[in-house]
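user: At home tonight, take the chain set out below, taking as long as you need, and be ready to discuss the fold:
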Amino acid sequence: MSEIKGKPIATPPSTIFERVLFLLSIGLGLGAARKAPGTVGSLWGPLLALGLQYINGHPAMMLLYGIVLYVIGIPICAAGIRYYQTGDPKHVVFDEIAAFPFVFLFVPVTWGTAVAGFVLFRIFDISKLWPVNRFEKLPGPWGVMSDDTIAGILAGLVLTALWLLLGAF
């Protein structure tokens, strides 16, 4: 691995498939934001959940979508890790995006829930409270995907509780 002033040089993807995986890993470019790439990249999350709920928003389907996104997220995030040559690159945001079916597992996406779910997810993701921090320690793309999935589940539980307590918002 080459370095410039202590920073690894990114390794360009060598095949078209690898380039597609890399582009997905950075949220089609939103993760390349200079400031707060995780937050900016997470903006795709509520839109993804809205689209998935439009297709079929039953909780069993949202769970299935979340599981599928988790599984395909492993090679996608691995491509980002290879490119940036670091454990959990800040520009790799597919893990954040893929967590949103769990955030909206039991709650429909509306303007109010989209904002609340987004904020709750970012709080759990950034704070890395237990058990999120435990899953972050898994190796490679497993840790990258798992901590955000757990953050999404926790945000979804809080959002569901708010939805049940406050009603539609």
